[in-house]
Each structure stands twice: as structure tokens, then as C-alpha cells.
Write a structure and sequence with these properties.
By secondary structure, this protein is an alpha+beta fold. The longest helix is centred in the first third of the chain and has 36 residues. The protein is flat. The relative contact order is 0.09.
Length: about 290
Amino acid sequence: ALGAGPDPGALAAATLCAAVPAACVLLALLRTRARGVGAALLAVAVSAACAGLACARELSAQEALSDALGSSSVSSWELTLEGDMREGASGWRGRASAARDGMAAGSVWLLADEPVGMGVTLRCVGRFSPNEPGDWGASSRAQGIAGTVRCVRALESRPATGLGGAVISLREAVLASLDATSSDARALLAGTICGSTAAMAERGLDEVSGGHLVLVAALVSRALAGSRLPAWSRAAILLLSTGGFVAFCAAPPSAVRAWAMSLVAELSRLAGRRAHPLSSACAAALAMALADPG
């Protein structure tokens, strides 16, 4: 079903049909001696229902974007690269956010003959192809991608500006100084420091997970350990430092997840509770899945 794309309305209806009677049964269970088990099952049921409705909303947004791109000229849309492009058999491919009249509508794959830099906003003559049935279409849909735009000719190209543009320029300067494609060690360093996996993929190396953020957090925590700052100040500095590093790395999902886990852990400590890694991971995963199921 995922290969062909589930119907958003049917998914939402099925979720509600399953959630309502389940909630009634579990609410009744709360009045018995098994109220502890009932409360835990109710929390799971509510989370599952929220996840189902969030997925239906995401699929509906993808359908709307696919219909809009298919019924309009590609040149009327602005495509902003969300990360680094990778070279493949069909050209350079990267994830881009699609917007029209200043309103973001979702994400697509951008396919071009030449690489486009991260953060660059492109307006082009091209062709849009929706996700096809099959494994590739299912994979793209699961990532929040509505289809592929093939860039035939660029009409306008604007680099990122403001603080985001400054961070991207600094990242590009660091990547240029590393010369990531010259050796495995330099490719790994580029992936660890800048979150750039293009050179790693070219040299057959596995992608870096969010573990590099743990090292940065440990170094910052060590530096703050001997200070006389109050606990909330140390937590704020730690979160801002690691958040800046995540932005510098182009905010890959693994790093965002690791940062969200550190946020939950720090809030737990400030509340006087013991930080639990598994609980932090579950809370971060649930929040990210509900905010952006793609």
C-alpha cells in the first residue's frame, strides 16, 4: 500500500475508527484495579492516533503539492536547496523546498546537470514527475518528498542571505579547506564537522550519525563544569552551542534527533529529575514524528 501511496482520507478515518472505541475501553479500564496498565495503554493509544492523523496530514500535503506542480508551470515556483546535492546516474540530486507566492508548500527532489549549493533559491524551466509506485516512490514519500523536478534551464539563482547565509558561507569555506574528496580521512572529517556526506558516499564510507554531537556536548559540558554559573545558564549555553553546531552541519535528521534528546535531558535535570536516555529518545522521536512525519 505504501508503494502506491495510501489515501489520506481513508487513513484518517481508519485511525479515528480504531482510536475512539479503544479510548473508551481504556478509559473504562482506568476505573478498575488495573488503572496503571490502563493509563500506560491509553498513552500509547493516544500517541498512535496522533501519529496516524499526522501521517494523513502529511500525505494530504504531498498530494496537494503534486497536483499543484503538475497543473502549473515549474518556472512559477521557487526551489530552495535544503542540503548538499549528490551526483548520480541521472545528474545531481538534492532535496528542495518548493514555494509559490512566498508560501512554502512542501519538498521535492531537484535533479540538475550541475550541482546547486545548499540554501540557494532557484527558479527554472523544468518538468515535474510525481512519485511512482514502487520502492523508490515509497522511500521518497516516507521522506516527505512529493516528486521530482528536473531542471532544464535555470532562470534565476539566489544564494541564502542573513544569518543562515553566513553560516552556509562559513560551512562552505571549511569544506573547501578540508579538500574532502582527497582521502577517506578528510571525507570522514568533513562528514563529522560539517555534516557533508557527499565525499563519504563517493569514497564508499558510511554516513555519520548524531554521535559527533555527543562529543561536542561533552566538550562544552566539561568546559562549563568548573564555572559558577547557575544550572539554567549552563543548560542554555550548552543547548545554544550544540544547536549552533547542528545548524552548521546543515541540520541532518540524526543531529536534530540527538539535539532534541539533549534538550529533553537538560529540561529533566532542571526539573530535578534524573535524565534517562531511552525516555529522551522516545520523547524526541515522538515530537519529531508528529511535527514532520516525512
